[in-house]
Amino acid sequence: MRERHINAILLGGLLLTALAAWGLDQPFTITLATKVAILALAGVGLNITLGLGGMISLGHAAFFGIGGYAMGILASHAQSYTPLMEAPFLIEGTKSMPVIWLVAVAASALAALVIGALSLRTTGAYFIMVTLAFGQMLYYFAISWPAYGGEDGLSIYVRNGFPGLNTLDPIQFFGLCFVLLCLVLLFVARFSRAPFGLALTAARQVPARVEAVGLSPYRLQLAAFVLSGAITGLAGALFADLNRFVSPAMFSWQTSGEIMVFVILGGVARLCGPVAGAALFILLEHWLGALSEFWHIYLGALLLIVVLFARGGLIGQIAAKEAAHD
Amino acid sequence: MTEPVLSVRGLGKSFGALKATDGVSLDLRPGEIHALIGPNGAGKSTLIGQIAGGIRPDRGEIRFAGRDVTGLGTAARARLGLGRTFQISALAMEHSVLQNVVLGALGARGRAMRFWRPVMGDAILVKAAEDALERVGLSDHAAMRTAELSHGQRRQLEVAVALALKPGAFLMDEPMAGLGAEGSLRMTAFLDGLRAEAPILLVEHDMDAVFALADRISVLVYGRIIATGTAEEIRASREVREAYLGEEDA
Fold it and tell me: Which pLDDT score is estimated for A324?
């Protein structure tokens, strides 16, 4: 099976699951599908650095959290009718999703620019540690910042709005998240095959060659890091809206680890790997979580199997097997 | 006389007490192949690294294409037209052969920050890459994954990537390394024709190739150039024989 067919099946399957649940009046299942779409989006962001760029970031919770808090801060001001700031100019809160998304994307892109510019001066284990350190800094900052809930987080009572849609209706909110996921996947698919993708993947394999042809691996990797952070930040804003709640947990290193698990389970550097990984993760959480509180043990075992025996992840396995047939 | 394309003046680089490059001056003139030879440990790699841009010299000046490039990085020098091949092939093994050369053509035009249109659909880049592959005789392997190429073919691909840059000068670090006798002869013939296009600074261990190709030869020993001259002059130099060529007889 060609990878693009697998991708179509994955995305089609996710859409059909949500639609079937809607027809059968199972809002909980729609919420699960929405969660898959949002977490997949976070993974798609990480996959740009991890898969295409070969940069192992253990700090993507920073962007996920920034996206989440962008939503939380703007919406909390809107629901309490207090301006965000008055001087030098007035900024009001908002309950409009498009505005929140823009702010989330801009804020996480800016954070990624700063974090990337500093951490890309290192490689290997140091890069992992520096990104982790930035994530943890933001985590403790969020905990100790009382204005927005501190350790308890922030509750938003009504989901934010999108012009022309009723976002409180689970299927409509799913639709929004699904469309965003597909648009981002289209963008990633395009730039992977564009000059940027060629140069970025070459910079992962042979940075010396990329320099010798007149390109800067640092700039390519920084651009990838910013795109990656922006996408994960958008996912963070959606995730906060799904739960109508933000908390410092979004910034925790466990979150970074989970996003990485989606990518590895699904297939590193595969376009829809994070979709497969996030779907599998949510299914396991749902089924195994019902069996035992300690379902992470099974997840750990599965992760070990994938890393040891199935490096290409879920998509790699299916695509490779089918390729062997023809 | 025409101005040299590349000129190195009083270059020095020390690592602790070791003088890896000690007051090196050399020129690369239009249309010539200038070979740099020297025993192992003479500092050839350090010198090449400084000329290419990866290693910063302690003192001295490097001029290329009419300007001082001493303070510029590798990428900036490449954009000015310094085409480099590596001693150990530096190729993107997961990419196709053609993609590797397209990367060279892409870099030359500084157009990597493009996010939408497929790079392999860019007729100008692909044509430039195909031309370069044809010239080194790898056209039939364009679609192959680079990892599947033989060692000799990888050496040819190295040269093709540099060609795609349309450089003003080549910096070649042992292009014959690991090639068989026949491969060496073919590469020699190819480089012979290439000098008309752009001059080549050639670091090479294969003495047959060096004496067949080089218009001038510089001999590097312990970080210093002990002699520069034509093949005959170098062969005749007693100092060179003692320091270097004689070594093989001993």
Answer: 43
